[in-house]
Design brief:
Transketo_C/PFOR_II; Transketolase-like_Pyr-bd; 335 residues; Rossmann fold; TonB_box_CS
Amino acid sequence: MAEAATEKQAPAITLIEAITQALAYEMRNDETVVVLGEDVGVNGGVFRATAGLQATFGSERVLDTPLDETTIAGLTVGLASQGMKPVAEAQFDGFVYPMVDHIICHAARFRYRTRGRLTCPMVLRVPWGGGIRAPEHHSEANESIFTNVPGLRVVLPSSPARAYGLLLAAIRDPDPVIFMEPKRIYRQYKELVPDDGEALPLDVCYVLRDGTDVTLVTWGAQVKECLEAAEALEKDGISAEVIDVATLRPLDFVTIAESVSKTGRCVIVHEAPKTAGFGAEIAARLAEESMFDLVAPVERVTGYDTHIPLFRLEMKYLPSVDKIVAAAKRAVSHS
């Protein structure tokens, strides 16, 4: 009876609600955690990720900033250098570019610059990716800008439960974390996410489905498409393993390599442009370290080398279940 009552008190929540839940948990339990960004206080953020936090924790811990991303980034780095744990929000992925100077030139270098005497325990939350019919600068998959930077962690959750656990881990991490949230699935589905403060490990891939014929490697919103593709492939007698990378930098290549050693084939799926997308790094590592395990060329299903098109063509640009299935079948056709 007690378990049934607990379940009623903790309904399934969306990914965006899991973000709010994680922020609230950590703010309750750590007074050094502060939230800042444009409209995050009174309005609760453009996607309502911080709804209710200012009313609960006050305007000194949930700060509405000017509409100035450069200032937000600089203030965040300054707070982190002085013993706070700031969680900043960039309203959209395309708004991070003015922040890059502070993030790359300062936040990422604190540990190196001071030979480990100082760290920069900050999180930059970035609503990320396409699929919501938004205008220019609102639908970009720009994770590879940060995966090339030593000193940064780059995390991309793909479900409510992983968003909750990985955000807790990111806030607790002593080094800067770029936390990119796939906005297309903010409210797409719900999961039971206990508000227990249990963090998930960073720097590891998650094997979401076992398989023997082909490995599907992806992150963010495309995890859903890859799982659906795996189900479609199963109907044709093809067993697909699905890996959610989750932390892009540092990359848990061991999990990917172990899967490919079993399946012999790999399809990498991401919505960023193909050229120099993070999938190219995974493909290169497979060529360097797992070439003799491969029985087929690595396939990539990605966005195109263009800016994401507006509205009518947006979903044509993004990886789809059909494109993933086709790539997997090409890989399996090699014996």
